Amino acid sequence: MSLKNVFGQQQAVGLLINEIKTGNVKHSYIFYGIKGIGKKFTAIQFAKTLLCENLDSVYSCDECTNCRKIEDNAHPDVFIVDTEYQERLLDKIDKQKNIKIDTIRYIKEQASLSPYLGKYKIFIIDQIETLQKEAANSLLKLLEEPPKNCIIILVTALLGVLPKTIISRCELIKFLPLSKDIIKNLVSYDIEIPCNSMEEIFYLKQLSKFLDNLEKDLTLEETQKIADELKKDKELAKNFVAKITEKFLHQQYNNELSYDFLKDIEIYLKEFRYNIDVSLMIETILVKMRLIKCNKS
Question: Can you tell me the distance from the alpha carbon of 12 to that of 173, in angstroms, rounded to the nearest whole number?
Fold first, then answer.
């Protein structure tokens, strides 16, 4: 995936591409617009473009070390900061879902270090509107004097609640709602649940071939093949687990196996944040679903 996979945001992508071409990339951005239209997705693709080793004009190759590590959320110079990241960083559950000062302090510490692999250190901070007051003040100091080769991308659905001092130090990139025509053209799978997120649309499009296969009785060989395909993209695998769970719930399997299965699914989804064996997990889920289906019939 690259910036060419960002659909329905020609204006935003055009601005970013122009800055790449002219060498006028800013130190700080705010990507803003309603929830679920591709802001965070675009930020990740922008980061890949900035660090790609085999850049094709303005599009990342998706094959080099930097591209693959960013896609796997494992690049030492790219920090995707969200509530899950913060919980891992601070080693505690945050029921309030606010970005805390300790998280910003860690970002400032990392920003002061030189890049390990790429030209830049890139920080993508999602839901920046949840910043606590102390955290906002700390972030402001970083935006006022950003270290060399450091790029900060703030992502929000609520631009109006951000401190004006932070807004004034960033370039604003506006994301527009997806039109019905764009959604219609993107979706090739018959979706039972409304879909408004650009990321969800993209993954549903990729998942259609896997989801269609679930309508038949899979052999163990076919199950393993699906698992091996999905392990290449952890986020795709996570979406797959979520979607097959939706399909499973629609089938209304009322037995002890199904209740235990749903408990397992909850655990599996949480484990995606860690370094898990995705292939083995998918295989296990599909085999359990097969057993439940056989028990029903």
Answer: 6
Q: Which domain holds residue 118?
A: 3-177
Residues 115 and 232 reside in one and the same domain: no
Amino acid at 39: K
Is 212 found in the same domain as 130?
no
- Clarify whether residues 150 and 163 are in a common domain: yes
- Please indicate, yes or no, whether residues 150 and 18 belong to a single structural domain of this protein: yes
CB 40 within 8 Å of CB 84: no
Entry pTM = 0.67
pLDDT digits (tens, 9 = 90+) for 209-263: 677 666 666 677 777 788 787 777 777 787 777 777 766 665 555 556 666 666 7
